[in-house]
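Inverse folding, one chain.
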């Protein structure tokens, strides 16, 4: 990033303060808000279970519901 002084004659301290503000704003814009959900893991995706065959009905079919073969 290049910063160019167009008008005036700022001191080193003024330039440092202006650069600190610009960098802080850029960092704040780059980070997502804290309340935003992050990316979902693949293990939490419901389509992972629904993509498999439904178990055949029977006495132990409830046990095979979430353990596709």
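Residues assigned per position:
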């Amino acid at each position: 990033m290049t910063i160019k002084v167009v008008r005036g004659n700022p001191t080193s301290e003024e330039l440092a303060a202006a650069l600190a503000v610009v960098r802080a704003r850029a960092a704040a814009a780059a980070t997502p808000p804290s309340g935003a959900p992050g990316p979902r893991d693949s293990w939490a995706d419901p389509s992972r279970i629904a993509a498999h065959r439904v178990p055949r009905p029977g006495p132990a079919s409830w046990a095979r519901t979430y353990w596709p073969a």
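Residues 12-30 form the longest helix (19 residues). Residues 20 and 33 are 21 Å apart (CA to CA).
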